[in-house]
Structure formats: C-alpha cells, structure tokens
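Before going further, learn to read the protein records used in this course. Taken together, the tokens spell out the fold as the letters spell out the chain. A record is reproduced here so that you can trace the correspondence yourselves:

***
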Amino acid sequence: MMSRRHATYTSLRYSSYQPRTAQNCARASLTLTRVAVNLSLLDKTSPDLDNTTVMSLSQKPLKVLIAGAGIGGLVLAVALLKKGYEVQIFERDLTAIRGEGKYRGPIQIQSNALGALEAIDSEVAEEVMNLGCITGDRINGLCDGISGDWYVKFNTFHPAAERGIPITRVISRVSLQNVLAKAVIELGGPNTIMGNSHVVSYTNKWDPSPLKNSSSGPSAVSITLHDGRVYSGDVLVGADGIWSKIRRQMVGESEPHYSEYTCYTGISDFTPADIDVVGYRVFLGSKQYFVSSDVGEGKMQWYAFHKEAAGGSDVPGSRKARLLHLFGAWNDNVVDLIKATPEDDILRRDIYDRPPIFQWSDGRAVLLGDSAHAMQPNLGQGGCMAIEDAYELASILTDSLERVGGDSSKLDVRNAFRQYQERRMLRASAIHGMAGMAAFMASTYLAYLGDAMPGPFSLLSKLKIPHPGRVLGQVVMKLAMPGVLGWVLGGNMSNIERSRDAHCRIADQPKGFDQSLFPLFMKDDDAVIRASAADWLLITERTPGSAASVRDAHVDPFADVTSTSEVKGIMMSDTEAMIGRAGCHLMVEDANIAPLHARVWREAVTSTTKDSSIALQSFDYFVQDLGSSSGTWLNGRQMASGSRSRLRPGDKIEFGRSPSNEVYRVKLQHVSLRNEELSGHSFTTLAVGRKHTHMGDGALVVA
C-alpha cells in the first residue's frame, strides 16, 4: 500500500478506470432520468468476493436487519453482503429508488465518502463516479450575495488528490440509490429489499436457555412493522433517517431542532459565465444565503435559505416572485438561476437537524446516518457521514467476528457497537457542528458598516466601509479552511487505508484549466474572472411589458416577468463600441447625452503563475468618458472628463445624469449562451435560461 505522505497528484499511480464517455467536467453527464432497477440482473451470479474479508460460510452467517433503504442503509447492505452476511432491508417507500413521486434533486458526494465507497466496493464506486458531475476540480467557496465578490475560496481538489482519494462529485439522488439498490440485489437476491415495510419498533430478545449467561446481553432482536408483521435477526441497524422510529424508542421522544431557516430549491437550465473555473458557491447575506452548484448537462442546482418561522407556506404560483423579492437585488449568479427555473420546479421545505446524542445503540440495535446525527445540509456531508458510518460498522462487525472464528453466536455485539460509536461519534459531531455554524454565519454576516443598523446609522453602508466582523471572519477562515478541508475530506483516511490503495483517477483532473493554475486562482480574484469563457455585456433592463408602447421596443406583452428580461445593450469586444445618440453602437435615450458620449472596449492581458510556467491570456474591459459636458457615472461616482476606468462584473454606469432612467450594468454571460438578438438601439424581451435556436446553430441564448 502506498504511503500517504507520497500521495501527491503527480506521483500517484492513476486508476485504470476510464469514464464511459469523454466528457467536459463542466458539462459532465448527470443522469437525471428515472431508471428502474434492472430485474434481469437478479439471476446473475454475485461477483467473486475477496476470501480474506468474507466471513466463513461454514458458520451460520450473521443476519442483519436494516431499517431504511436510503443511502446509508443501501451502502451498509453492500458492505455486509460483500462479506457474506445475511441482510434484509425494510423500506416503507421505494419510490425514491424508482424515481417516482416527489422530485428528488442531486446530492453532493464528497471525497471522503467516495474513498469509503471505493473501500467497500470499487465497482459500485466507479459506477457512481461515472454518473456524477465533478465539482471539486474547480474553485469553490463563499461570496458576498450582493456584489458576488469572493469572501473565501476553497480548494477541495488538492486535499483529495494528495491523499489519493476521488474528487468531489454531484450525482442524481435517484441514480445513486438505483446503483446501490442494483448492487444489493445482485449480491443478496431479489427479496433483499422489502417495500411497504415501515419499521415502527424493535425488541431485544434474551436466550431463555439456563446455560446462556444473560449478562452478555440479548441474543437476538426482532422488529415490528406498521402492519404487525414481525421479523427477527441477530442485529438491527436503524438507518431510517431524521424521523427514525428506532432512535425514538432507543433514546426517547424528542422533536427535531428547527434551524430557523426555510429552504427553496430548484434546478435551472442555465450555464454560469465562469462554470469552467467555479464548481459551487455559497452567497452570503444578512439572515439569508444562496447556494449554487453545477450538476452537469447545462444545469445548475440551487438552494435559497431564508430565516423565518417554521411551517410557512406560499400561495400557489408565487414562490419565484417571493424569491425575486428576497434575492432580486443580489448578483446575476443568483438572480439568473432563480429566473431560469420554472415556477412548478421550485420546492420549499423547512430545515431541521438533531442535536448529537451519546447513545447510538441498545442491545442489538444500533443507529446509522441521520438517525444518529442528522445535520443541516450546508456542508453537503449528511449522506457522506452515512457512507462513512456504513464502512466503519461493517468493518468493526467483521473484525469482531474474525476474533471469534466467524461464529455469530459468540459475537460480542455490545462491544462492537461501542467501538463503532467511539470511532464515529467525535467526527460526526464535529462535522454536525460545522454544518450548523454555516447557518449561524449567514445569520450574522454583514458586508458593510451600517448594514442592518436602524435609522440614520444605516447611511454608513453607502460609504462601503467593510464591516469589522466580516474582515475578522475572512482572515480566520482563510487561515483555518485548508486545515478544516483537509480533515473533513481526508480525516477518515487512516480507517480506510487497509481496504483501498491510494490512487488518482485520470478523469478527476481539471478539465477547464491546468491544475497548476489553482494557486493563482486562489490568490487572484481577477484571474478567475479572466479565465471565464464569457462574453462581457453592457446592458440596461426593465420589467417586460412596462414600456410596450415605446417606439422600436420589441416587447412581448405576455412575457412572464419572473422568467424574462427586457434588455437593451451591447457586447464588448476588441473593437471599441461608441455610446451616445443615434448612429452609435449603444443609443441612450436622454437629452443630456452627447453625440459621442463615451466608449467601451477591451485590451489583452496576461496572468502568470508564480513560477511563470503557465501564462493565462485574457482581456480586461474599460469605459472612457469622451469629454462630455454632462458626465459619466461609474457606481454612483462621476468620472473625470476624458478619464477611463477598468470595468468589473456588476459595475453600474450612468450616462448624462445620475440618477438616470437608463442605468447600465456590466454582465458576464457564458459564450455558449451568446444572443444575436441583443440590440443597442431598442429593448428586446429575452428568456433567461431557455433554449433557443439562432443563426442556425442551435446554440443557447439568454439575457
């Protein structure tokens, strides 16, 4: 086995696995279709098992009952079946596996969980990884919600690559459960997963024989289903989630803890401008935050969190409008995702977790995953912790059986469960706390001095003085995050090293840029912008239909205002674009505008890595006032006559007066969404995120 200290991306052996199809990570294929388990596989012989890890079948195999066919329960079943156990899963609702019923979006499977899954079954792990969209090969992190500026960037690539574990991915939850269920059925047979079987209680059973020492604990366990059916086994694993009946019986009745946040979620047909460089982001605001992630196939998944009382609801058809009310002043990376999502595809749920507990087992019953440590989704580690749990529980049970020669009747179940809890509780509790801290951070985040202050003090925010709390938090996070990420993604490596060799997969290398650019992107925010495959637009917007009678306005009066933008503007390029009256590239409707008032253009620029080994060729964009008597304003400040300024995404420009009826802003748009209908002379109603055909090439266009 390779030593961890030698596990660098350049020196590790690469896995021989190859992706099923050549795919660009940013456009990676994410299977969102509903795929049923192929029942023709049920008659196939189970794969050969490693004889060194399979329990001796000369002894009666340990019978394990699993309540719940979620991610944790299915992964545990695969691990146990691979080792020769008898497994029976009880699930009240199989629609999740079949992809029926309510929509279930993608889920993030991070490097630590993928490493554990590889240690359990490399073939299953490979199938999961091939179906996923890699996000950990790009820059990720926290941003300010209003401006979109980076607060803290995360490098999740190198902590995984240096340890020889797979890079974080996002995969359809239905596809993930389908892969796992298929593996369970291949290994255990068609009746291993029982549907319409809700476990409501359990009973520890003692051997009545006088020769049996009762102090060693119960000898078996039985479960009762909702319809009265009873089943018995040697061990019961409660993997039945945050509302676990097993947990309730074990530790007593308690209500889940409300996080104080409700969450809206959806998937948009939309491609952000910087998708080749950025995988996922968390946008911060006061008492609200927004998470977006690439999920492949030109789709983005997003979550909008807002602090409010539990149990709220929306008038049918009003969710998108409410979100635009809450987040409409935020940057384009937030607003465009909301606009590009159909109203019917937006879901809402309150976010709950449960406080850590110190009792994970009772006799022959034990908890796993959310039933033991349900956490908020802010770190994307809920399912990952369940996978780690499954690996540890299967390993400890097997080690304990090996010590008694594989004789399940001699297994010290209580001691095995105690080891499992000791190995998992501290790590799971720490990550549980980190997930809660993310929500707390959003509750207290303030960008500028004066934000959220009453009365005249709120005017301080116009001075754009960074809030001291934000500055201090930024310093602390930049110092702490490399260590935290290293521990979260690689902190379980010592436990799985005996079951897998460290290796890097060729398919995990960054697709959008050379990996040596990571240090540059982590340090230089401008380099991230410059590396984006984006068109730079200068546009002004107004509500669709608000000026339908205006001369030369090509407006659809029936357009959905929550899904469209009425836009006038230009795309900036090498050729300077003139701004002024009739005859200019961009015509501004204002009597104060000079015939040739201003110009915008771009200039080539080169960014290099610290060792100058790689040069990044790109452009910077500029605006210049052409000596107009009425002036040009950039972000509320008047430019000196004849001066020029470099532009950044989100900048606002006013020509002739401030405030102006036409406020222009700089917007970045991915080149695949280039829109030939954009005009500098009239307004056009354009859909956000919808697919159109133009110029005969079938490309996507978006406002």
Remarks:
- Residues 257-346 form a domain with the D-Amino Acid Oxidase; Chain A, domain 2 fold (CATH 3.30.9.30).
- Residues 1-58, 548-559, 691-703 have pLDDT under 50 and may be disordered.
